[in-house]
Amino acid sequence: MSVRVRFAPSPTGYLHVGNARTAIVTWLFCRANKGHFLLRIDDTDFERSKQEYEDAIKQGMSWMGLSWDDTFNQKDRNDRYNVVIEKLKADGRIYACYETADELGLKRKTQLSRGVPPIYDRAALKLTDEDRKKLEAEGRKPHWRFLLRDGATEWDDQVRGFVSFKEREMSDPVVIREDGRPLYHMCSVIDDFDTEITHIVRGEDHVSNTACHIQMFEAIGKVEGRAYKPEFAHLPLISDSEGGKLSKRLGSLSVKNVQEEEGLEAMALVSLMARLGSSDPIEPFTSLEPLMEGFSLKKFSRSTPKFDVEELYRLNAKILHHTQFKDIVSRLAAMGMGEIDEHFWNAVRPNLTKLADIKEWWDVTHNPVTATIADPSFTAAAAEVLPPAPWNETTFNTWINAVKEKTGKKGKELFMPIRVALTGMEHGPELPVLLPLLGPEKVKSRLLKKAA
What we know:
This protein is mostly helical. It has helices spanning about 15-30, 50-65, 80-90, 100-115, 130-135, 185-195, 205-225, 250, 255-260, 265-275, 290, 310-320, 330-335, 340-350, 360-365, 375-385, 395-405, 410-425, 430-440, 440-445; strands at about 5, 35-40, 70-75, 95, 145, 155, 160-165, 175, 200-205, 230-235. Strand 9, helix 7 and strand 10 form a beta-alpha-beta unit.
């Protein structure tokens, strides 16, 4: 069987890290099995769906390297939805209901007070044609529900294992609004049916939806004359680093935010999310291909995985430390830092957490610094014992020992004045790396408070 999968984000907001994880896992499963990847835009919510969010979703997917083989928008498929819906109405699987939101709320409250599960009582099925005409004459417009069949709904989940929903554990889901527009459930199932999706990967918050969707697949298969049932994999929702619900900041951390505001590498996010909650170790990867090797949905656990933003930064740093100059040169140029050469990159990359950090190194080594030297005699003495060129990563230790011997200074009194004189800051780039980049003339002039 050829694998066909879909990722179906709703353009009602930016793609956040939780959905990005679903996209990454789905994509890796698809490509590992040489399958077909569909990007479906679930935009049936006309009021909240925006083009800017759809554009950001696609840009974020491309940024992460998640290519797609086909794409379409649900808003363009209303004619098809209506055809299937009318068939299901004629078959008795979709029925009209006339209760108001307040009436349904009162029913629910009564059921809960009696200790009864708040499941719709199917009162609408008892209405006669005369009853419906009377309600509509009063100005009521029906919403429509899908009639769940009797009996258990079961499937073998790729992550959760055997799942079973017993008879009448769920309410008949509303599938059409009062204004006639179909809701997510029906549109999604019709799309999956038509595109013959073989595996649906999504969050565990959709488990109860899946029980309903399986019955919808069966009902649509009957009226369309084709049996169909995909496989399912429900990933546990991620928590924060302490195991609690994601904070507002982390929960809303979007791919756009990770890319533009945090300034992190795409592969840092992909490396973390591809293996978060699986039996494979989380490691820094610079491309998607190695992540495909041995990839399996079966490796994901049912336990809640913890998302630690600090781990994201650690992975980001490790990826930069292994990035070759040829793979970064165009991005440096786009940052306005085209003057950086391979020697400079190789020298500073082990000290980068984010690519933007390189600006600090460049500014310190190439632009004048403003520094107030509290003890000019000390820095002058330090200048006197500067080692001869050429300089390398061992030069600083040789020099600082000579300064210590000449001045008798040690600890903070030894290091801080030199750092301030050379960088204008009390913290920043590591001096052993910085010294060879500055060179003897620039170091000497800064120590003696001359124009660098």
